[in-house]
Design a protein that fits this description.
- The chain is α+β, with helices and mostly antiparallel strands and 497 residues long.
- The chain folds into four domains: 100 residues, Trypsin-like serine proteases (Thrombin, subunit H, Beta Barrel); 101 residues, Thrombin, subunit H; 87 residues, PDZ domain (Pdz3 Domain); 100 residues, PDZ domain (Pdz3 Domain), CATH 2.30.42.10.
- Helices cover 21% and strands 32% of the residues.
- It has 14 helices and 26 strands.
- The protein has a seven-stranded antiparallel beta sheet.
- Strand 2 and strand 3 form a beta hairpin.
- The protein is globular, with a radius of gyration of 34 Å.
Amino acid sequence: MSAPVRKPVPAPLHESRALPRLPDMRALILSLLLLLALVLPGPAAAQAGARVVPEGREQITLSFAPLVRRAAPAVVNVYSSRIVRERPLSPLFEDPFFQRFFGPGLNRPRQRVQNSLGSGVIVRPDGLVVTNHHVIEGAEQIRVVLNDGREFEASLLLSDERTDLALLQIESGSGQLPYLELAESDTDLQVGDLVIAIGNPFGVGQTVTSGIVSALARNARGISDYSFFIQTDAAINPGNSGGALIAMDGSLVGINTAIYSRTGGSLGIGFAIPASMVRAVIASLDNGGRIVRPWLGISGQNLTSDLAESLGVEIPRGVLVNRVDRGSPADRAGLKVGDIVVALDGAPVDTTDGLRFRMATVPIGSSAALTVLRNGRELTLTVSAEPPPEIPPRNETLIEGPYPLAGAVVANLSPALIEETGYDGVRRSGPVVLEVRGRSPAARLGVEPGDVVVSINGTEVSDVDQLTSLMSRSRSRGFWRIGIQRGDRLLEAVVNG
């Protein structure tokens, strides 16, 4: 038998006047809900805020292109070349027997031209170009090629190995050149800010990459003496050295300098020299072309967690002062042993490298505000930016004669020499070794640059003149006992006859 069929129940006569049919009711409710959703923002929309439908082409085609159009013409390619003289093959080829078969020119020193490629940035309309020292080091000819194809011979105005910066000059002869403005202060830059890098990686041509600021005040030893860098994940490769790191306002915030890499290519860890150091080097050019950095006249150490705990400091950041040179700017400003330097001109100082960098960017003749912690209280001291004095005179001397230190070039330590060479030893006075000639008695003895000669046969040495005098008087004794300060170690060498 078939299942029974249920017949529809007829609706009451009054239903058509009171309510619509069920499908019409659902449509009405859905329409009302949709209208409310469009008119009244819900909780998710209120939180997201920016999640709206694009209303024009401008919102769809967001791009760095306008920024790149303004900045790219000021970034240049730097080609440098030098002549490398290769050593002769072997002294055996000087023998007439070999010359008979191979000719007299076989063993002559050969010369070849070594080329290198880097990038640079025009920072003035008159053609002043900033690049890296290692890009043009030893160059005998430098060419600068602009993005539009124009090519110029460049003259080297200044090169500073300690900051790895160099300044070039090109002459266009046709008015102003495109240039980039230096950022006002690297303290305005924050981790997470967008940046773009422009350079000529691997010689493929001008290339633009983008990224963010990964870190600030990054310590990267081995790049320069002033280890204080902007770290970015914008792709930087060989050939980018000397190129531009640009903020979103179009200002030059750094000069791309180095990368951390195990393969030679970018791993997303690149380093740039901050614009404040670039400005300081340019100021040296304007002051006669000699780089003079202000000295503070202290030595200190990084505030570790153990030191901070023992001193009652909550955050282990800053420089603990453990020596103040008498008569130095720091001494006259009132800085004392035990003070903790935490800022300079409002910029945080976390390490000794950071303090050296910040002080090096202060113009000579001006002053800086040091923020220090003393006995739990925060003080502000005003220190003047002065050139380091060369007292006593360096009296650079090559030691010659039948002495164990023959072949060593020594000079008197002074604040100027300490600042110039980056010497960071314990001694602040005495004859310091600047150079050791190869195959000399001093080289065989193991003397190294940076060593300070502190005594000869038990007599303390105060300067270069006394050192040479003591050596000449001690020759008749038949033995030598030489005291040397190397870093924080005191060494002694005993040499017969």
